[in-house]
């Protein structure tokens, strides 16, 4: 019998991948990745006949979850590594770790809120301006769009025909103007900057706690400081690898490549913190901890 190329997605596999909320987009990507035209056709037919929904409400906050978690775990692990490099006690590691966790978490969360709010405010302001211009000088707006499409290779006749049709649908045309003229996605009334900030803060604290976990449990486990540090390294490495793989969703990288790069990033930060702390402590003749 015929042996199927293991990289080639079957029609059944594409259909199976089309069962979730984001099934159409995932199926289309899977078909593209393996160059399967038939599977791509099935994915697009499912998209036409199904109810396409690229991402649910929770999907809006996945990016904040991943990037907040990466910042949290790398920053806290760097603090742990620096403390170990300076030969500080477990108590000091916990004090510095939790202080950093809360302070940086609040800063990251509030920063995410402010940047998201600024983006939403700017987009809405531009949307109001474009709407006003369209209502008061539609000919000028239509001409701008015709010129944009002509620059992209359309003939003037075709560009005018396309714009005339789109301009019949005011809200749709306004959204197209936002994207084509300003490079901005139309504002979404469901956007919630404070939720982005809250997710970033919670993710920062949750994942940032992982490097401290072995030290928190040391009184119960009775493990030595060196064992606690080894366990912290292992837990942190595994978590960074998984978060790096999740990050690939937003960067269009290979999951393995993204995971390894994130592991390298966290490793370099921790090694640098350890060496700097060790060097300064050595130059000072050791760090004295006050009672």
What does this structure look like?
Helices cover 76% and strands 0% of the residues. It is mainly alpha-helical.
* Approximate strand percentage: under 5%
Low-confidence stretches: 1-23, 47-56
Figure out the total of helices. Answer: 13
Question: Structural class, judged by helices and strands?
Answer: mainly alpha
Inertia-based shape: elongated
Helix and strand pattern: HHHHHHHHHHHHH
Radius of gyration based on Cα positions: 26 Å
Distance between the termini: 78 Å
Fraction of residues in H or I helices:
over 70%
Can you give the mean pLDDT? 82
Please summarize the sheet with the most strands.
none
How many β-strand stretches? Answer: 0
Set down the secondary structure blueprint.
Layout: H1 11-17, H2 23-34, H3 37-49, H4 62-85, H5 90-136, H6 138-151, H7 156-166, H8 170-182, H9 193-208, H10 213-216, H11 218-221, H12 225-251, H13 255-283
Helix pairs in contact: 2-3, 4-5, 4-9, 4-12, 4-13, 5-6, 5-8, 5-9, 6-7, 12-13
């Amino acid at each position: 019998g015929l042996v199927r190329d293991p990289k080639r997605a079957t029609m059944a596999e594409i259909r199976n991948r089309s069962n979730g909320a984001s099934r159409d987009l995932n199926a289309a990507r899977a078909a593209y990745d393996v160059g399967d035209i038939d599977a791509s056709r099935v994915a697009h037919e499912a998209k036409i006949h199904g109810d396409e929904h690229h991402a649910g409400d929770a999907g809006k906050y996945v990016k904040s979850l991943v990037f907040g978690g990466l910042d949290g775990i790398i920053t806290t692990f760097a603090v742990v590594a620096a403390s170990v490099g300076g030969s500080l006690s477990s108590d000091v590691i916990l004090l510095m770790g939790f202080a950093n966790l809360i302070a940086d978490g609040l800063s990251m969360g509030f920063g995410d809120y402010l940047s998201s709010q600024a983006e939403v405010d700017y987009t809405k302001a531009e949307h109001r301006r474009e709407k006003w211009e369209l209502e008061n000088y539609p000919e000028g707006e239509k001409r701008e769009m015709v010129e944009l499409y002509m620059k992209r290779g359309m003939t003037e006749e075709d560009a005018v025909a396309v714009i005339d049709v789109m301009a019949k649908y005011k809200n749709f045309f306004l959204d197209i103007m936002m994207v084509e003229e300003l490079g901005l996605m139309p504002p979404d009334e469901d956007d919630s900057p404070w939720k982005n900030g809250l997710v970033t803060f919670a993710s920062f604290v949750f994942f940032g706690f992982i490097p401290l976990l072995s030290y928190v449990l040391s009184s119960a486990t009775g493990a030595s400081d060196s064992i606690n540090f080894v366990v912290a390294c292992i837990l942190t490495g595994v978590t960074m690898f998984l978060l790096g793989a999740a990050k690939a969703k937003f960067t269009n990288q290979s999951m393995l490549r993204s995971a390894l790069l994130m592991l390298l990033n966290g490793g370099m930060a921790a090694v640098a913190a350890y060496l700097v702390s060790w060097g300064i402590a050595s130059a000072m003749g050791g760090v004295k901890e006050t009672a």
